[in-house]
Each structure stands twice: as C-alpha cells, then as structure tokens.
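Q: Protein A?
A:
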Amino acid sequence: MRFLIPSAVLSFLLILILGSSAPRSTEAPTGFDNKSNGLTDDATHQADQTKFEEVEQLTDGLGPLYNAQSCRECHQNPVSGAASQVTELRVGHQGPEGHFRTPDIPIAHGAEVISGRSLVNDRAICPNAAFPDKEIEERVPETETIRTLRLSLNLLGDGFVEALSDQTLIDLAAQQCKSSHQKICGQILEVPIVEAPGQMSVGRFGWKDQHASLLSFAGDAYLNEMGITNRLQPDEVTKLCNRASEPNDTPGSDGLSDIDHFARFVRATKAPARDSQLASSTGAKNGNALFNRIGCATCHVETLTTAPSGTKINGGMFTIPDALGSVTFHPYGDFLIHDVGTGDGILQATREHYGNRVFQTMSGYLSKQDFESSRNKIRTAPLWGARLRPRLMHDGASLTFRDAILRHQGEASHVIQQFGKLKRDDQEAIIDFLKSL
C-alpha cells in the first residue's frame, strides 16, 4: 500500500530537515577566569598560559634587541592575554618622493645599522659580562620625524576574531561605505599567512591589520618584541652579542614550539566580559541606544558571527573547531582600518612583520596591496574590555572616554558632530555605556 504525503506536509518536513542541518550560532563565553572557551580543556589551557607567561632568559635567546621578557608583560590587565598600558615605539620619515621610509638606526657606535623596520626596541642584552664593550641600544636619529607610541592590544577573544570569514569583513566594509554614503569606508588589506607561504587573507590583528593568523602574529611578536627567533621568523634583527643557537624557539616533547602554545592559548581565551551591573542600568541602556543612533556603531560593530566549524582558514593551515565555529560575539569593533584623524603616519614594514623569506617570495603580491594609503589609518579599537583600560586610543594619549570620543575626526567627523549636539545628560549616558563594556 502506498501512502501519499500532502505537499504542505512535505514542505514542512523539508523545512525541519534543512533548518536542523543549518549551523546555529552560539554565544561566545565571556569572563576573566583564566579558563578555556572550550577549544581545549582547562588543564591544557593553563599549561599554554604558563608558556605565555614564561620569562625569557639570555640562554633562551632573549634579544639581542627586545622590548619585554614575557608575553604577559604587554598583555596582562586584569589577566594574561588582556591589554595593558605598555607601549612600543615606532618611527620613520617621509622620503623625497613623499613615501614613508623606515629608519636606519646605527648601533654599537656605528658598527651596524638596523634597517627595514619601524619598531625601535627599548632594551638590549649588552653590554653584559660576556660583551662588556658592546653597546647596541637603539636610539632614534633626529632624521626620523614621524614618531608614535602604540599601546599593547587585548588578545582575549581573538580566537573568535580569527575565525571570522574574510567575506564577513569584506561585506562589512562594503555595507558601511554604502550606508554612510561613502563617508565611512573601512579599508581591507590582504596580508600574508606566514605559516602558509604564498597564501593571503584579510588582515585583522595589530593596529594596522598586519596579520590575519594568530600563529603569524605570535611569530612576529616573539621575534620583534622579545628577540626570540622561531620557525616563522628565523632571522635575528642583529647578531651582535648573540650567543644562543638558532632558531631559539624549538619544538618540545609534545612537538609544539612556544609560538604554537601562544597561538593555542589566545585561540582558547574567553571574550572580555561586560560589567553586568552597569550594563543593566538605565543610563547604560540609554547610552547604548544613543551610541547606535548617532552612528558610533558603524565602526564599533556590536555583533559578529564566526564561520562554521570545519571551515579551513589561514591558507588551509587551521580548521575552525566546534568551539569557535558559528559563534556570535560582541567586540564593538569592525577590525577594519579607518582614518579617524589620529593616524600616526607609520606604514607597516612588510619585511619586519612577515620575515625575509616571505617578503622576498611574495613581494609581487605585497606590491598590489595599497599599503601606502593606510599610513594615516588605524584599526578600529574593539571596545570590549575598554573599561579596564586607563589609557585609550592607539597611542594611549586619551585618558578619559570623553577625551577619546572628541579626538575622533576624519571619517568620524559627522558622528562626533552628532555627539556634540546631544544634551550633556545624553553624552554622559553614552559614557556610562562605554564604562559597562
């Protein structure tokens, strides 16, 4: 006997089947409890955190030029992986043709010249007992008239940021440009995936969006901030005073190098949590509505959703796991670069961030990216966890939320005009909202 299923019932069943197979987003876990977001178990996460907090010594390959001895030195307020008040120094000058040029910095009384990087390290390992007559401290030449400080970035929740699809960021840039009638247009930069030579993706990490991969970011920071060479960045900035074997970062008994532990630690961090008491207050709720109404949310985007689990990213080198797939999170940022009048004029130095090998093999790809136009642009600062930052904006020069708001110009000029037209109580409501983030 045959049973005929009415078409209406069949359609309903198809909807149920298709609906159940579509990925459903979940909310990103938040908190400052040093626990995993589910990517790893807590024991593994704590072991990775120990690596992140480890203090590097001369025998580990520290330096010869460096800024810090541990990742947590620059990323630890209130917990490891968060932001801090620590800044780094970047300089350069404008060449006769009008383009940005990185500095040439003599060290060791002119014995060597450091070039090809905008970063100026604050520390050096010598003179020391082994090299009492070597002085390699970098000092900024007077010729370098473009100078800026940059605050260390928050890393909590960046595993969700890495798991955003390129298309999500591309569509966001196009949508905000269209909806603002070309007044606010975030710039997309495709950058190399250092662990996947020849592959590129949309940048989202660093003040200039210089990296798309957390492993690439870790390799860059390990060399340029601590002087630790690794498989992604195997070349020392200088060999003066250097006695450690190369590369400094080698695999442990588990087959993982320090940079692998760093990347896994960041990927497993929870997103910054809001102040629930302030967030539920009438003032903060009103401020949130006003924040959206005057246009702040055009760049400080509240909600984004990661790509589905199983999606291959970073040139095929990383597959989004269940803990990071189809997850909704609330960064209050767009991870695009904009000109809001506070740009520092520094052009990202591609050799510095991607290493000599990638720079040489991918020079053709890099030349097609409009890096020069990004000189005065800065990545939108994600506002999650902003209440825990005593210094604001990319350079830390703004000490109150009002200071930071009023510094916005350029693409944000119209929004700031709208803020200025608000009653003082309404302005304070927006600030109350920011204090809840």
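Q: Protein B?
A:
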Amino acid sequence: MSPETRAMQDDEATGPAAFSLLDGEALWSRKEGQGGVACASCHASMKGVAVRYPKVVSGRAVNLEQQINVCRTGRQKAPPWAYESRELLALTAYVARQSRGMPIAIEWKEATAPFLEAGRAAFNRRQGQLNLSCAQCHDDHWGKRLAGSVIPQAHPTGYPIYRLEWEAMGSLERRLRNCMVGIRAETPAYGAPELVELELFLMWRARGMRLETPAVRP
C-alpha cells in the first residue's frame, strides 16, 4: 500500500469506509422482520468473531455474510440481504471492525480439513482460457507487477474493503470473482461452496496476521 492509501485506511473518522460503518452500526441496533429483534438484542459484542470466519457449520463452510443472513432469516424472520448489497456489506464490516487488530485464527483441524483441502486445491488449480492458478500469481510472482499494480500475496486481512478502483465497498468473493473474470474462467455464483472454501483457505494462509477490516485498497 502507498502511504496515501494507508493514511485513508487509518483515518476512520473521514476515510472512505466511514459511512458504511455508520450504516452497519444503525443496522446492528435496528429491529427487523417479523421477529422484531435487532442484532444487539442477542449479541453484546462481536469482538473476536470475524477472525474465526469462514467456519464449518452443519457440514458446510459458511462465511460471515452467510452467517448474518442465517440470523436474519432464522431469528429476525426477515428476508436475506442480497450479496454485495449495501446493507450486507455494511453490517459485515461493522461486525468485523470489532475484531480489528486481532490475529486471524483459522485452524486446520478435523472439522475444517476437508474444506481447507478443497480450498487449497482451488488455489493451486489452473483454470480459464489463460490457464492460470491463484498460486502462480500470488505465491510465485508476488511483489512483481501486473498491469502496473503490485501483485500481493493474497492475504485477505481487511474484507469487506473499500477499493478505490470500485469506488465502493466490496467483499472478498467480489475480488475472487474479478480474478476469475480476468483469467477468463467460469465464475461461480456468490455464496457458491467453492468460493467459500477458497475464502477459508486464504484466511488460513493469513492466520496470525491482524485483521484490518474495513481496509482500503487501490
């Protein structure tokens, strides 16, 4: 990150993600659905939660956005929010912000191993018309440049992020799908198991690194 981008990320009061966090705070306290309850009605704090997502629930990998919608439909009796909607991104960012500065804590254990293995296979699998894998860019060529931008090591420490290219907040799945479009590969739908498994593996690769949500990136 450039010093200018880092400064935007560190300035929480006037940074580009500030309005999304304010929206998330309002949604956290607002009673919703036929259940007539707010997130705050059940949860006093979300500190330490985001560093453990995605996690395995009822035999499948679930990311934080999906878990929020599970609570909406199950507890609030409200319709789920669409992926990449302003509301879902805002509340996810607000929840994750409470773990900012904590180390990512994904564990490779019996319950998570099959999903981590699937994510690792996806990370190393060549795909698309360009026949490229995630690992070829982010393991083999990190630090070099692609189309003028520095190739990072694919550590997803700050999602949802405000990306300057998008001029908006966006999820890790949006970024992953962008890469797939770039290599001309078939793009799974938001929430597809293969995307969540890849997200889980990427978070495991970033274990020990500190959460930065909501991050700002070029």
